[in-house]
Task: structure prediction
Amino acid sequence: MWLAIVGPRRALARNLSLDDLPSREEEELSDATPGFDDAVLGVRDRALCQELERLAAAPDAARTVAVFRGAAHMRAVIGTLHTRLGYRIVDASWLTVF
Result:
């Protein structure tokens, strides 16, 4: 579906970076398409963050967890890990997968 909306890899390459806060363009797009962000990001983010919280609460919580989602989902992941679970960023590695 994503490729049908934005086009080939060339179009994807323009959107590979993501800041911790939404850009003006992202905010305007979200305002212009009410409900779309929640359908594409919000529902999936909530499910992902609930699973992260469940994993953190497990008795054997000391483990490595990989999150395979697009960059747009990382805002929710970082928010959950930092704000709700008290984790802090010590190191990070980003992998390009396409």
Observations:
- Residues 36-57 form the longest helix (22 residues).
